[in-house]
Specification:
The complex is a heterodimer.
Chain A lengths: L2 H14 L2 H6 L10 E6 L5 E2 L5 E6 L11 E4 L2 E2 L5 E3 L2 E4 L10 E10 L5 E10 L2 E8 L7 E8 L7 E2 L2 E2 H15 L5 E9 L2 E10 L2 H9 L9 H13 L5 E8 L9 H7 L5 E8 L4 H13 L3 E5 L2 H13 L2 E5 L5 E6 L4 E5 L1 E7 L7 E6 L3 E10 L2 E10 L1
Parallel strand pairs in A: 2-9, 10-24, 11-14, 11-16, 16-17, 17-18
Antiparallel strand pairs in A: 1-3, 3-7, 4-5, 4-8, 6-7, 8-9, 10-21, 12-13, 14-15, 19-20, 19-22, 22-23, 24-25
Helix pairs in contact in A: 3-4, 3-8, 5-6, 6-7
Chain B lengths: L13 H19 L10 H18 L6 H15 L10 E5 L6 E5 L2 E5 H6 L3 H16 L2 H9 L2 H13 L8 H16 L3 H17 L6 H11 L5 H7 L4 H17 L1 H6 L3 E3 L1 H6 L1 H13 L3 H14 L4 H14 L3 H14 L4 H14 L2 H14 L6 H12 L1
Parallel strand pairs in B: 1-3
Antiparallel strand pairs in B: 2-3
Helix pairs in contact in B: 1-8, 2-7, 2-8, 3-5, 5-9, 5-10, 6-7, 6-8, 7-8, 9-12, 10-12, 15-16, 15-17, 16-17, 17-18, 17-19, 18-19, 19-20, 20-21
Classes of the chains: A alpha+beta, B mainly alpha.
């Protein structure tokens, strides 16, 4: 609903009121809109903490109609946040209503009971934080080995949009493989039942055509041995020395073959192996929660994919991007993601950026300055990795 | 969720019918005058009678199941009670699942508000006025005084004793049945003009003492007529030509300007809170749906607009606003904007896709009309009107 539209509606509602009321309190003669002043923040004010917003309004004639009050910041309606009193309105912008950094425009409207609309606006600068960007130099990163585990249980035959889950998964993997860099080392493991887990492609430089052919040959049936397949994957990865080891599992359900996730978490510790779980079209909060816990306990990641294109993006991120996490004071996890050059808006303060490797610890402390952009860049190759920080005022 | 029919007369109508009631009661009361002057109900009697009446009322009527709302309203009641004349029992407020505009008390600290009235109030100050009015009936013992005045005092005494002796009593007792009869009569017709006048004056005083802007008090009464007065019957109930209501509005306006003028000028008095908007949101939507189902489109629209202001991302009020625009105006862009907002809030909500398809059809955009209707069927293939929609799609494709 547009701003003008909402006020017009309010005015119309007032106008539809019985003329009886309007005559009684002299509304018919009220042609003057309420006066509105924004007391805080002051026009152009630069604030390092978003102040309580204080607005004063008044209408000497028919009186302010409190229900018509509208306050928008950058066209987003914040009216509900305001407490209204006999002289105006106030609001506290808590973390739930975080404002973007930089210039913000507050617009206020309120009508009187005769329908006259008053307006005021003020622009202020929110300098309560800075931006954090996490990047990698081209080609930077450890040497890694990954195995893709594909769930080919019976449930993968279920329909997903106009096709089956398995058809969507095959299509996503084929598209993924086409885009992988030549020479990338990737293995393929498939399970079709509790006791039917098979390594279809060894972890070595990928033969794209052969890999796609193997994927095409998969026929889904049976149960979902997540634990057993991950443990087999670990055995294979463990034999490869001095690399970053990753198991990426695509599944459309929870463990159905009596495996215990605690065993996976224990076995992933030494040598460290990260597990990335891609939950494919799972509509069960209990299952996704346990899969997320499994992934995060190994330092890996949990990705929810609802269709084929989301699955493809999740696979690309898992195999080609480097994960990272941002921690705040006291080690509180603030954000987790894959390096993509995205800009995070964060409050002023000290943070630590940790890159998501299992066998290496690469991190950088960052102190965000007001309206400044700090970039953490991963440099180096193999096991000689480091992170540097540069800060640019804006 | 369907609310009760829009049938009752509001607490606001008390004075409107008070003259007849008072006259009738007065005749009965006159017979007893001189026989006894002191009230026969003790505080304990009143509390037990109120409990018994509440038990009977709640057995016959559905309550609105919203713990968040009841908790919030309970907090507001406590603010008023803190500045009111003390009574020796705890207060309890319950919301009745009824879309009509009413609030009443059985005495004994038991107050009821209809969902329809909660939904239609604009702000917390207006809510405080309604509750302070009802609490004033409690602090002034209007229920028991009314019974004593209305019935033979000997009977009133018996009612008191029976109610007092009977915990977990009723229904079945003709004596306490009389007390219930009186209480429900007062709930509909008010307690009599003088008592209603007292409750207004005490109510606005409590309102100011609790820190609320008294200028909202007369508006509480007036807006319920003005903003929702699209039905003539409502207007007759609330204002019409009843001089008592005009007097009521004038008295409260004068009090807010004169007696409380200095307080208003020198203090920052509360009008509305975020909590009011949050806590009343569900009941506002439910009453809006009720209004829509009864084809009271103006009031339904006002309810949904209010709900959207409180929570922009709620798909249901957007859906209904779109549906109302589609059904009552030629402004398809407005209908489409609301329906798209509903879909943006919840893409799996099937009904807005159906209406969106129909809105685009009326706008002459066949491709988008088909897309909307097909999406509706995809999301709800077993919809009751699935066959009709399939036929409609086929027609549009021709």
């Amino acid at each position: 609903m547009s701003r003008l539209g909402s006020i017009a509606i309010a005015a119309a509602v007032l106008a539809t009121g019985a003329s009886l009321g309007a005559q009684r309190i002299g509304r018919a003669n009220d042609k003057v809109a309420p006066t509105i002043r924004v007391i805080s923040p002051a026009p152009g004010q630069r604030v390092e903490k978003v102040p309580d917003v204080e607005i004063v309004y008044d209408d000497d004639s028919s009186g302010v109609s409190a229900v018509t009050f509208r306050a928008k910041v950058n066209d987003r309606d914040f009216s509900r946040v305001f407490e209204q009193h006999s002289r105006g309105a106030t609001a506290k912008f808590t973390a739930d209503y975080a404002l973007p950094l930089g210039e913000n425009r507050l617009t206020v409207e309120v009508a009187d009971r005769a329908g006259n609309v008053g307006r005021a606006d003020v622009t202020f600068v929110n300098a309560s934080g800075g931006w954090l960007v996490v990047n990698t130099e081209p080609g930077a990163g450890p040497e890694s080995r990954a195995e893709l585990i594909l769930d080919a249980s019976g449930s993968m035959t279920e329909k997903l949009l106009d096709n089956t889950r398995m058809a969507a998964a095959k299509s996503a993997i084929k598209n993924l493989v086409k885009g992988l860099p030549d020479g990338m080392a990737l293995g393929l493991r498939v399970f079709t039942d509790c006791a039917a887990i098979k390594a279809l492609a060894p972890i070595q430089s990928i033969d794209k055509a052969a890999f796609v052919g193997l994927v095409e040959s998969i026929e889904p049936k049976g149960g979902t041995p997540i634990v057993a397949s991950l443990l087999q994957s670990f055995e294979t990865l463990r034999a490869i020395p001095d690399v970053e080891r990753i198991s990426v599992i695509v599944t459309d359900g929870g463990e159905s073959c009596s495996g215990a996730f605690s065993e996976v978490i224990q076995m992933a510790k030494e040598p460290p192996i990260r597990v990335i779980v891609i939950a494919f079209d799972i509509d069960n909060a209990g299952i996704t929660s346990s899969l997320r816990q499994l992934a995060e306990a190994t330092g890996g990641a949990f990705i929810d994919a609802q269709d084929g294109s989301e699955l493809q993006r999740a696979l690309e991120a898992s195999l080609q991007r480097i994960g990272y996490a941002v921690y705040g004071a006291g080690g509180t996890l603030i954000h987790r993601g894959f390096v993509s050059g995205e800009r995070l808006e964060l409050p002023l303060g000290a943070y630590e950026v940790r890159f998501g490797f299992s066998s290496l610890r690469v991190s950088a402390p960052v102190t965000l300055a007001s309206l400044a952009e700090s970039t953490v860049t991963l440099r180096g190759k193999g096991r000689a990795l480091s992170a540097t920080v540069t800060t640019t005022p804006r | 969720m369907r609310l009760g029919r829009f049938v009752a007369v509001s607490f606001l109508a008390a004075a409107a019918l008070a003259a007849d009631v008072a006259a009738q009661f007065g005749q009965i009361g006159d017979l007893a005058k001189g026989a006894m002057n002191k009230p026969k109900f003790s505080d304990e009697d009143e509390a037990r009678m109120a409990q018994a009446n509440a038990q009977e009322f709640e057995a016959k009527n559905k309550m609105w199941p919203d713990p968040l709302l009841e908790t919030y309203l309970g907090g507001v009641v406590q603010k008023i009670v803190a500045v009111s004349e003390p009574r020796p029992y705890p207060y309890r407020l319950r919301v009745v699942r009824d879309a009509s505009l009413n609030a009443f008390t059985f005495g004994g600290g038991l107050v009821y508000m209809h969902a329809g009235l909660v939904a239609r109030l604009e702000n917390e100050a207006q809510l405080v006025m309604v509750l302070a009015h009802e609490i004033a009936h409690v602090t002034e013992r209007h229920v028991t005084k009314g019974i004593e005045k209305s019935y033979n005092l000997q009977l009133a005494s018996q009612i008191g004793m029976t109610a007092g002796a009977a915990t977990g009593i009723l229904p079945g007792s003709p004596l306490v049945g009389k007390a219930y009869e009186y209480s429900m009569g007062a709930a509909i017709n008010g307690h009599g003009r003088n008592q209603e006048r007292d409750a207004d004056r005490i109510g606005i005083d409590s309102m100011v003492k609790a820190g609320y802007d008294p200028r909202e008090a007369p508006i509480t009464f007036e807006l319920l007529l003005m903003e929702y007065g699209d039905s003539g019957r409502l207007k007759n109930f609330f204002y019409g030509s009843h001089p008592s209501n005009q007097e009521r509005f004038k008295t409260l306006t004068d009090l807010s300007k004169n007696k409380y003028g200095k307080v208003v000028a020198s203090s920052k008095l509360a009008v509305n809170s975020e909590e009011f908007k949050r806590a009343t949101r569900r009941v506002v939507v439910a009453v809006g749906v009720n209004d829509y189902d009864d084809k009271r489109y103006n009031t339904a629209k006002a309810m949904f607009e209010k709900a959207v202001r409180a929570f922009q991302d709620d798909p249901v009020p957007h859906y209904y606003l779109g549906k109302i625009a589609l059904e009552t105006s030629a402004d398809m862009d407005k209908a489409i904007a609301h329906l798209e907002a509903a879909i943006a809030a919840d893409a799996t909500y099937a009904l807005p896709h159906r209406e969106l398809g129909l809105a685009y059809y009326r706008k002459g955009d066949r491709a988008k009309a088909i897309a909307g209707l097909e999406k509706y069927l995809a999301l709800d293939p077993k919809a009751a009107d699935a066959d009709v929609i399939k036929t409609t799609i086929a027609e549009i494709k021709r």
